[in-house]
Amino acid sequence: MLSSSSTTVKNLPLKRRLCFLLKLVCFVSSVLIFCEFLIYYVVIFQCQWPNVKGGTHMSEKETSASVLKAIILADTHLLGEIKGHWLDKLRREWQMERSFQTALWLLQPDIVFILGDVFDEGKWSSPQAWADDVRRFQKMFKHSVFTELVVIAGNHDIGFHYEMTTYKVNRFEKVFNFTSGKLITRKGINFVLVNSVAMEGDGCAVCRTSEAKLVALSHKLNCSQQKPNHSNRRCSDVEKLPASEPILLQHYPLYRKSDAECTGEDSAPPEEKNIPFKEKYDVLSQEASQKLLWWFQPRLILSGHTHSACEVLHAGKIPEISVPSFSWRNRNNPSFIMGSITPTDFSLQKCFLPFESRVFTIYCAAGALLVILVLAHVQLLTPPFYFAQRLISKHKAV
Questions:
Q1: Where are the beta strands (DSSP E) in the chain?
Q2: SS3 56
Q3: Burial bucket for residue 226 (CB in 10 Å: 0-12, 13-18, 19+)
Q4: Of 22, 148, 153, 349, which is the most buried if we count CB atoms within 10 A?
Q5: Alpha carbons 274 and 257: distance in angstroms, whole number
Q6: What is the pLDDT of residues 308-344, one digit of tens each?
């Protein structure tokens, strides 16, 4: 049987074999191009910027001038030289690069926030490894001058509190121009950047500096909003900021007992939801959380760290959104947040990236079809059409 098939293949005209080979190459190329490039456009094209109150009654020019379009993502975890396998790096980093670049091209945000854990091994990487990780990050997340990129420090970037050193913090700050207690104001909207790793409350050097900056910034913001409990005398020499309630951006979420109340398809798996969170490790301590709420009275808090989605209300009125991981390495259905923000209001919408399982399914289906086509071509597998034709012929003969 096999020798007969081999003889048949050899006897096939050269032109026919080349034509079949060309068709296979086109088929494989089409699958690769779709799964590694076009699928990101197909999926992200479906995401739309949410409307804020009054946005539907404003002209397009007025909307673009007054509404800040922000993308928020978290926990990219670029693999390092110690734990990162080259194939894992290649696959995950390509997914994040294509997702990010496609989102920039299609959505054209004004600003992008990355809420920490940019790197996976920043907490222990050598200077050379750190430089290599930074180079790869800058390639993956390159952006035009019309889009601003703001990066927050996470525990994998500078270490947990017991690993955090001034050297690691300064190294991160030098690359990303990040300092805890830094204020970014865009279109009259105040964003407060918090180094949540430094909110340990034990009086360490980095913690003292960080908290001092946050307290000073809190005073400025409160004076700018002319709170009744701040007299004119206390605020007379303070630089005035836009009178807009701030939005807090940080890596650790504020204190919550667990993810038990979190819902949605990208929330934590059922077996993990009821696991109690450890203060200063999974979430901020209750004391640090109360400090931030008391200092800033924010209208919105955005955090990462857990790799899963969650929405909670603090003090019954202040929403916190935990942003899921952006990487396939941490979840099958990564996503980012799209925010339309004004000085007085905001509206958020989640944009899912391609599911990794769906990409694998396409590859598996294409691979199976490819095998069937090859077997049918060399007559090791009878094509269904010819099989049906033979049955009909036999039926007529009878």
A1: 68-73, 111-114, 148-151, 182-186, 189-193, 247-249, 300-303, 310-314, 318-322, 335-341, 346-352
A2: helix
A3: exposed
A4: 153
A5: 9
A6: 999 999 998 999 999 999 999 999 999 999 999 999 9
The overall longest dimension of the chain from CA atoms, in Å, is 109
- Mean pLDDT, residues 122-144 taken together: 94
Using alpha carbons only, give the angle 259, 172, 101 rounded to the nearest 5 degrees.
Answer: 70
CA distance 338 to 348: 6
- Does pLDDT of 382 surpass 90? no
Q: Is the dihedral of CA 115, 161, 184, 302 positive or negative?
A: positive
Q: What pLDDT, in 10s, does the model give residues 75-92?
A: 999 998 888 788 888 899
pLDDT at 35 over 90: yes
Q: What's the CA gap between 153 and 197, in Å, rounded?
A: 8
The Cα–Cα gap between 194 and 203 comes to 16
Q: Which residues contact 60 (CB under 8 A, 6 or more apart)?
A: none
Give the whole-angstrom CA distance, residue 170 versus residue 181. Answer: 15
Q: Reply yes or no on domain 30-226+235-358 having CATH 3.60.21.10.
A: yes
Domain residue extents for the chain = 30-226+235-358
Closest CA to 341 of 185, 196, 219, 218: 185
Q: Are 342 and 69 in contact (CB under 8 A)?
A: no
Alpha helices in 141-269 (DSSP H): 155-158, 166-176, 205-224, 232-235
Quick check: 136 and 93 in contact, CB under 8 A?
Answer: yes
Cα 107 from Cα 71, distance rounded (Å): 9
The 8-class DSSP code of residue 57 comes to: G
How many angstroms separate the CA atoms of 62 and 331, rounded?
38
User: Are the C-beta atoms of 323 and 74 separated by less than 8 Å?
Assistant: yes
For tokens 């096939």, the residue is: 12
Q: Which residue has the tokens 């993956």?
A: 140
Got the DSSP string for 95-137? HHHHHHHHHHHHH--SEEEE-S--BSSTTT--HHHHHHHHHHH
Q: The tokens 């790869």 sit on which residue?
A: 136
